[in-house]
Amino acid sequence: MKTCKEMALIWNISVRAVSNLCKSGRIPGAVKNGKNWEIPDEATKPVDGRISSGEYCKKWKNPDRKPLPIGISDYVRVQSDYYYVDKTMLIKEFLDQKPLVSLFTRPRRFGKTLNMDMLRVYFEKVDEDTSKYFKDKNIWKCGENYRMHQGKYPVIFLTFKDVKFDSWKATVEKIKSLLQEEYGRHQELLSSEKISDYEKVYFNKVLSATENEVELSFSLEKLSKMLATHYDQAPIIIIIDEYDTPIQEGYSKDFYDEIIGFMRNFFSGAFKDNKNLSYGFLTGILRIAQESIFSGLNNLTVNSAMDEAYDRYFGFTNEEVSKMLEYYGVAEKESELQEWYDGYLFGNEEIYNPWSVINYISKGCVPQAYWVNTGKNEILEDVLKVADKDITEKLYSLICGDKVLARIDQNVVYRSLTDDPANIYSLLLVAGYLKTTIKELQADGSYLCQVSIPNKEIASVYKSEVLAHLMQIGAVSRTIADKIAESLFLNDYVKLEKAISEYMNKAISFYDTASESFYHGLILGLISMMDNQYKIKSNRESGKGRFDIGLIPRDDKYPGMIMELKWKKNLDDHELTLLANEALCQIHNMEYDSEMKGEGIKKILRFGIAFSGKSVCVKIN
Fold this sequence. Notes:
The protein has 25 helices and 18 strands. It is an alpha/beta fold. The strands form five sheets. The protein has a five-stranded parallel beta sheet with strand order 4-5-6-3-7, with helices on both faces. A five-stranded mixed beta sheet has the order 14-15-16-17-18. Strands 8-10-9 form a three-stranded antiparallel beta sheet. A hairpin with a 2-residue loop joins β1 and β2. The longest helix is centred in the C-terminal third of the chain and has 18 residues, at 456-473. It is elongated. The termini are far apart.
């Protein structure tokens, strides 16, 4: 959570303006703690209701409809005050199987925290009659065999979703505060005659956050034992949400070994041979089995996006989305919503990104990348850093909308990227950046899959991350990217020609032009800068042969472009100019523009590009 002052700096507005936004209810999830407002880390700046003309821009609203729960993971509040998609049949599916410890792995923002809070409310033994929160839900219709479990178990609940710090020391302090808060929920143990004095001494240590790391590591085991003793009812339920968030932070911030060692002991005490445990639940993005965090935990059942079990409970199904659109009176938007936010395949169920769907509807059905702005895309950043020639080529194919064959290992870990770059597809799949279209289980437990980018939203993050990466390594400059964007916006052909020429000069001076990666790097740069305006094709048959690069406009206000590239060793400036003119003549003689002309594109720019070593000459017709 952040303060008004911190958000004011991020959003570049005054502290008072942030406070007023909180008071008016325009920041979802903002809560008042004493005199100060606390704002969720992932909160986005509310859109200004004004437009440049001074006219008021009325937002889409329907007062007769419940609002959508953006950024709210409190089950009781969501099902009461907001539009709630009923996922309570997850409880039935779980009770039918009764696995001792369940790990659910799904991408971020796919409803994991809300589902875990639902489980907590359903199972937890409290003074309040919590059955009222389920009597109108699907689970209540399933009969007494399921109702008998409602409100019957002591529950320990932790969420690590906000454990995001730059150091191991700060991470330990945050974990201590989470245990302090959870122990505080069970202070009835301090007055219990069944709890021994030495256990109460330990309890008070955790409550005051004065325990050391070793004592902290067996805090779950200790609390489960005390709860079982006090209630004279073993076992209890332990729920840990987003368990791998601090592990990902450890990987990117250099305290990986420390967090892995701690988590191994922390989870072992909670889930391995814990006679006080009834059921355990964990959620996260990755399984991380190879790290031995769950070493010896033979009672662990992993449910991933590849499995059919629980496939419809994380994210929205087609049926749920259609019903939601109908409720808000925007059923005609279904095809657009599908293009932007559908495309995931969990088990055998086609799934929509829930975070993006509710933001899309809440913000007047404006399609944009909502999910990708809720956190860092560190996994994709790391992929681009280690991508070799083969991976670069496949990334290029994916961004162009093609399908790629890849081996998917569900036991992939963060640090495995440097060990074997081919693991990138496994990481990208579990993190939500890829979908499987065909999968085949292999003898070693991995899958051979055909993968692709799931939708327009994820395609946009690939392009933005690729551009950021190319700028970082020096293959593209911000000035050139801005010039290309400006010339496209102004529809200025002359400026566009100059900007493309500058880009070619920059790229050719950066890459090893004798390598295949040069060609793919060149294309990736063009896609990342111009894909919104162009469909970019390479080595495509047209006329009497194949052109090297073609940019086909998505809107007829833009010109088409054809690029022919030629390379020879040891050319002087005069010879380089002749070679560029030869490339230009080839476009004309081979009629490479015939396909574009056939599609009714009237304005076509032709680039003859010749290079030798780090020298380049660009001729334009």
